[in-house]
């Protein structure tokens, strides 16, 4: 595990940092794993991203206080379930604390043995490749082992609220020089 060294931090107000970055919409992704005794574990992130095409890599950031990440780290694999607008209840359940949060949530096992939650926009099955300590978070890099597109619209999060993407009407001049 490598560590990002930072210079003396300037006095940035965390509330302002939250407000500024809260204006930037993110997707909502459930990171899930299955323990050796068959118990599903998971938590929600807004930081899941594609990182590299060659080789195919993804990344997300997890708070050091996460109680689920240490389990998934040991398992060494996870599925990133990109949640759809139909899956707000899944988001709410998995963003709680506690081992019971998967109760009532259905899943299917991926070829990697990780939980895929039906109804997601996509499932990305990954092996944990590396982890970097960065301040109060870990930055996780995963290598993509399998990638499946589902259906529906991605659930979005901005400023503490959930929503969906709205396309602008295409102006008549679009596509014309
Ligand atoms: C929309 C949304 C996005 C979130 N993004 C992150 C994130 O990127 N990283 C993170 O560590 N926690 C994030 N959280 C908070 C975690 O989901 C929450 O702390 C989680 O339930 C921790 O549970 P655990 O202790 O079982 O890991 C997010 C929560 C929500 C609702």
- List each distinct ligand once: flavin mononucleotide
**CATH first level: which class?**
Mainly Beta
CATH-assigned homologous superfamily? Electron Transport, Fmn-binding Protein, Chain A
Q: Tell me the total number of β-strands.
A: 13
Strand content: 35-45%
The biggest sheet amounts to: 8 strands, mixed
The separation of the N and C termini measures 52 Å
Principal-axis shape equals: globular
Provide the CATH topology.
Pnp Oxidase, Chain A
Spatial extent as radius of gyration: 18 Å
Poorly predicted ranges (pLDDT <50, ≥5 residues)? none
Helix/strand-derived category reads: mainly beta
Describe this structure in words.
The protein has three helices and 13 strands, in the order E-H-E-E-E-E-E-H-E-H-E-E-E-E-E-E. The chain has 177 residues and is mainly β. The chain has a single domain (16-160), classed as Electron Transport, Fmn-binding Protein, Chain A (Pnp Oxidase, Chain A), CATH 2.30.110. Strands 1, 3, 4, 5, 6, 7, 10 and 11 form an eight-stranded mixed beta sheet that branches. The N and C termini lie far apart (52 Å). The model has no long low-confidence stretch (mean pLDDT 94). The structure holds flavin mononucleotide (FMN). Flavin mononucleotide binds at residues 28, 43-47, 61-63, 66-69, 91, 95-97, 157.
């Amino acid at each position: 595990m490598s560590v990002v060294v930072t210079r003396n931090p300037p006095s940035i107000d965390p509330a302002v940092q939250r407000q500024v970055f809260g204006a930037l919409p993110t997707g909502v992704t459930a990171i899930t794993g299955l323990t050796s005794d068959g118990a599903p574990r998971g938590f929600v992130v807004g930081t899941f991203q594609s990182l590299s095409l060659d080789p195919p890599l993804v990344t997300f950031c997890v708070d050091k206080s996460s109680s689920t990440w240490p389990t998934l780290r040991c398992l060494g694999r996870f599925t990133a379930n990109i949640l759809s607008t139909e899956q707000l209840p899944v988001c709410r359940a998995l963003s709680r604390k506690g081992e019971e949060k998967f109760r009532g949530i259905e899943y299917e096992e991926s070829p990697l043995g990780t939980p895929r939650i039906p109804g997601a926009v996509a499932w990305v099955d990954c092996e944990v490749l590396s982890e970097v300590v960065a301040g109060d978070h870990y930055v996780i890099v995963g290598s993509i082992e399998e990638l499946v597109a589902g259906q529906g619209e991605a659930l979005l999060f901005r400023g503490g609220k959930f929503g969906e993407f709205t396309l602008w009407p295409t102006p008549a001049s679009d596509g014309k020089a």
